[in-house]
TrEMBL record:
Pfam families to which the protein is assigned, alphabetical: Polysacc_deac_1 (PF01522)
Gene3D superfamilies the UniProt entry points to: Glycoside hydrolase/deacetylase
Residue ranges of every copy of the NodB homology domain listed in the record: 30-257
Protein name listed in UniProt: NodB homology domain-containing protein
CDD domains: CE4_NodB_like_1 (cd10960)
Domain of life per record: Bacteria
PANTHER family assigned: CHITIN DEACETYLASE 1-RELATED, GLYCOSYL TRANSFERASE-RELATED
Species of the source: Alishewanella longhuensis
Residues in the signal sequence: 1-20
Keywords: Hydrolase, Metal-binding, Signal
Amino acid sequence: MFIIKLLNVSIIACLNLASASVDVKAQHPKYISITFDDVPIHGEFTLPAQSLKEINQQLLDTLKKYEIKATGFVNESHLKNNPELLQSLLSDWHKHGHTLGNHTFSHISYHQADLNTYLADIQKGATITQTVLGEQKQKFFRPPYLHAGATDNAQQMLDNGLEKLGLTLVPVTMENADYVFDAPYTVQLKNKHVSAVNIYKQYLAFTERRLDFYESASAKMFEQPVPHILMLHVNQLNADSLDSILMSLQSRGYQFQSLEKTLQHPVYSQPTQAFKFGIHWLFRWDKSNENKVNWATEPEPSADAFAEHQQAVTTLKSGKL
Ligand SMILES: [Zn+2]
């Protein structure tokens, strides 16, 4: 019942977004690929198996509604004690025609591991995934925390290692800090508290601000629209809000296309300098080239939002709900 009420709010939010952005529809075609990290679940805290099934199913249903073939980057470790459930959830993604990429086994940071340990963790992370894919080879890799090498040499070593494994590193050009909002949202939803709706609205509003910013940054950086890659995480909040996010993207004039197609654009072949922190590729490209964007103005979740996130993760981990 609570969810139904919540979804009504979502529909109203969508209608508002759609009508507000109609004239923004671009003359040039705009393309975007949708990607999910942490398939089958973002692992900051543990949820019951039934919730995992529902979250994944909701995401798959919404992607189907928009006829989107997405790419999901798999972490196998979160369900290492329940391989049957892991296999069943991954099979659902595969059967729906989505691509399953690699996100390491244990969600480790490349900046805190030596190359061989890291590459071994990547290989371990494809065990169940490969049984689901059968003959099909895994092609794509997304580094946890977007840690792609803290030095130019480390970055090059990772690229070489991935190439030997037949994997391509997949950049991100748009992201919306979804995990910050997801933990407090999950707590309030479990409590059946009305403030879940507020968090949901804050999340969608923040997503709009980020999309506005990335569109404006791209317009400064490139003469023509470049195809984007949106990174979302598999979580309760995105299960409930994906419809609104996709509708917003459509109303901004985006057409959804496969990751293969997006990566063919030359912008994705350009080298970038290394960064010690995890950051999206619009920033990397701009900083490595003409530095046209004032990145200090990139919207960030508020300090309160981060504090609420931390508190919610502690509550969820304590199992007191
Ligand atoms: Zn991740």
